[in-house]
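Suppose a colleague, Dr. K., hands you the sequence of a protein chain of 302 amino acids and asks what its three-dimensional shape might be. Before reaching for any lab equipment, you can write down a predicted structure in token form. Begin with the sequence itself:
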Amino acid sequence: MEVGTYANLLLLRLIVGVPWHTPGGDRVYGLRGNSTTTFGYYSIAADQWFSLASTPRPVQRGGSLAYGGGNYLYALRGRNTDNFWRYNITTNNWSNLEDTPRRVRQGGALVYDGGNYLYALRGSSNNFWRYNISTDSWGNRANTPNTVSYGSDLVYTGGNYIYAFRGNNRTNFWRYNISSNSWSSRQNAPANVNNGGSLAYYSGDYIYAMRGNSIGFWRYTVTMDSWTVLTDTPGTVGRGGSLVFTHSQGGFAFRGGNNTDFWEFGVTPPRYDISSQAGSVDTDARFEIDGSTKTVLFWDID
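The predicted structure, expressed as tokens, is then:
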């Protein structure tokens, strides 16, 4: 199966014989998109893609996929439709759920809050919604500060916050407060975010991002509200580009842009070298700082 035009990537952390949501699992799920019904998963251990049951209808721009706890994945169809689906992992089948409040357009995005709710950007608008899993119902939430479009994305970092790229060839980066149902602006992205813009989070203090329509790859430090430019992606990311973490120091990415490229990436927390001299004694050390965790990588005294 081709993978280059998938609409979205999702990591489902599973290990055979234990609950589906267990961290450290083997599968990365993906929608191909591009007006197709193709759906499948990548086995990390086998380094191979496998086909699964096709989506009920073709997935297009604005299509998005999210894990919703337990045994289920959820998906927006996108491209000016209100179709919303659920995928059962065990039975390998799709079912129709309550339609979205309005038709999802380019820039649609979906994210799970780890509890009973999914949140969604409509795309090509400032509409922001919440889906109640237990009641199969949608509700309006506070609108985003501006219209979102191609390259927009959502990421949940645990606790009370969801972060969002505006996309639409803009640098806007926002934070949504779940409990107060309000948005606030954060430090702008290093450059305009475009087709293929994507956000990913695993744990700790960092969100990683692909800029889209470029080779830009960045890290956002939550506690510092600041961006760092990292090593470029191997090629230009296009529409359908997506990023997912499978462990604390790396994961996988679709290039998108009607390409079949599928990449594995690795990241390391920031490292700092410190040198000092006291009389005839020289001291050199290297530290790695990951959120509140500080690790001494080496220490040398001459």
